[in-house]
C-alpha cells in the first residue's frame, strides 16, 4: 500500500495551467482572523505568526501563489518602475489578496483567482509586491479584470491595511507603496516571481 502524502503548499502545488491569467492561491488568513497565520516553510503547515494589532484586520483573503519567489527578477521590475531604496526581493513566495463576496471562515485552502492589479510595496528595502485578484466565479467580484474597475474605496482599504499592519499608532510608516498597477503589470510580476523560483529551486 502506497501512503498518501500532503503536497507542500509552496513547492508541491503548481501555479496553474492558465498562469498568469488565472493562478492557484494558497489562502493563509481570512478577514475574520485576529491572528496572522503564515506557512511554515519547512513543514508546509500553517503556523501562528503574530496576533493582529489593534483593528488592522485584512479586508480580503490573503495568501501566496505556489511555486513563486521574490528575488532578482521581481527586484528588477521594481527598479525599472523607478522605486528607490530597494535592494532585493523579500525572499518569500509572492503575496496575493483575493476579493470575494463569500464568507470564508478559515485559511489553509486552495482557490483559483484572476489577478487584476497590485501594489508595488517597499518594506525595509525589500520589494514586497502585493497582487490583487478576484476569486474565479465570484458573483460580485468575479467579473472585474483590472484594478481600475474597482471602487476606489476598495483599493484604499487594501492600501491602508498594507501601509499600517506592522505599525504601532505612534510609529512612523515602515512600508511604502511605490505604485498601484493594473492587470498587465501584475502578470509581469507573477512571471518574474516564477523565474525567481526556477532560479532558486529549479523546475
Automatic annotation (TrEMBL):
GO terms for biological process: phosphate-containing compound metabolic process. Its cofactor is Mg(2+). Its EC number is 3.6.1.1. Gene3D superfamilies: Inorganic pyrophosphatase. It comes from the Bacteria. GO terms for cellular component: cytoplasm. GO terms for molecular function: inorganic diphosphate phosphatase activity; magnesium ion binding. Keywords: Hydrolase, Magnesium, Metal-binding. InterPro entries: Pyrophosphatase (IPR008162), Pyrophosphatase_sf (IPR036649). It is an enzyme of class 3 (hydrolase). Pfam families: Pyrophosphatase. NCBIfam families: PRK00642.1. This is inorganic diphosphatase. The gene is ppa.
Amino acid at each position: 500500500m502506497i501512503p498518501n502524502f500532503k503536497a507542500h503548499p509552496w513547492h508541491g502545488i503548481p501555479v496553474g495551467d492558465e498562469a498568469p491569467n488565472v493562478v492557484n492561491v494558497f489562502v493563509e488568513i481570512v478577514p475574520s482572523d485576529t491572528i496572522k497565520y503564515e506557512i511554515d516553510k519547512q513543514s508546509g503547515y500553517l503556523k501562528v505568526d503574530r496576533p493582529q494589532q489593534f483593528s488592522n484586520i485584512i479586508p480580503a483573503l490573503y495568501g501566496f501563489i505556489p511555486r513563486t519567489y521574490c528575488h532578482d527578477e521581481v527586484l528588477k521590475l521594481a527598479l525599472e518602475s523607478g522605486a528607490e531604496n530597494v535592494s532585493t526581493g523579500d525572499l518569500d513566495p509572492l503575496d496575493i489578496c483575493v476579493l470575494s463576496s463569500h464568507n470564508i471562515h478559515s485559511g489553509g485552502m486552495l482557490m483559483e483567482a484572476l489577478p487584476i492589479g497590485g501594489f508595488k510595496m517597499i518594506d525595509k528595502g525589500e520589494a514586497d509586491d502585493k497582487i490583487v485578484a478576484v476569486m474565479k466565479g465570484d458573483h460580485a467580484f468575479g467579473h472585474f479584470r483590472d484594478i481600475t474597475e474597482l471602487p476606489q474605496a476598495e483599493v484604499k482599504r487594501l492600501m491602508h491595511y498594507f501601509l499600517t499592519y506592522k505599525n504601532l499608532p505612534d510609529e512612523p510608516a515602515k512600508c511604502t507603496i511605490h505604485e498601484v498597477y493594473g492587470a498587465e503589470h501584475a502578470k509581469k510580476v507573477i512571471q518574474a516571481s516564477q523565474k525567481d523560483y526556477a532560479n532558486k529551486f529549479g523546475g
